[in-house]
Amino acid sequence: MSAFPRAAELGLIGCHVCGLACRSGPGDECLAGGHVVCPRCGSALHRRKPNSFARTWALLIAGFLLYIPANVLPIMRTASLNDIDDNTIISGVVELWVKGSPDLAVIVFTASIVVPMLKFLSMGTLLLSSQRGSGWARPQRARLYRLVEFIGYWSMLDVFVVALLTALVRFGLLSLVEPLPGVIFFGLTVVLTMLASMSFDPRLIWDGRDTDD
């Protein structure tokens, strides 16, 4: 039992749209379609995001499935007078390292391999532990969720690198860089994992086994 009262015990519901803390008691709010609504923006209020587990799992699994072709298919083609080379994420990292750009290689490897895998593992851990109503390391899991949200803004770095290289090399007359289908799959993976973290309700971390989604 927590030493601090929860919002439900105080009769409060937080609006997902405008953030207003609303009273949930009878007569305190207007009703629309059987739902309590926010008096400021009119959005339906829920103590927890509806179907949060199902939506988050669906988006996370879809993102993981798209991450496979994102790594298998080439993401960038470099062409010069006597050479045409298609690079996947891994081969591109290796080429950057070999050609004297270790800093950029580390950045691309971190943004394209390490960060997505950590996001998959972190979101999977949060989902499984929350669904089981586990009380294990709740403050740490809440901080982990905030970290996942923060690094999500940097997940498109690999796509930005390809776009930047494409724009810069087009100024040259004897070489060419163009994006390939792997970039599309990687971009979709990033979008789906960001949507998954947005669909997950972090308040579920603090719920016990007797609390419904």
Automatic annotation (TrEMBL):
InterPro entries with a match to the protein in the record: PqiA-like, PqiA-PqiB_transport
Pfam families, alphabetized: PqiA (PF04403)
Keyword field: Cell inner membrane, Cell membrane, Membrane, Transmembrane, Transmembrane helix
Location within or outside the cell: Cell inner membrane
Transmembrane segments annotated in the record for this chain: 57-76, 104-129, 150-173, 179-200
PANTHER family according to UniProt: INTERMEMBRANE TRANSPORT PROTEIN PQIA, INTERMEMBRANE TRANSPORT PROTEIN PQIB-RELATED
Name of this protein: Paraquat-inducible protein A
Annotated organism of origin: Rhodanobacter terrae
Taxonomic lineage of the native organism: Bacteria, Pseudomonadati, Pseudomonadota, Gammaproteobacteria, Lysobacterales
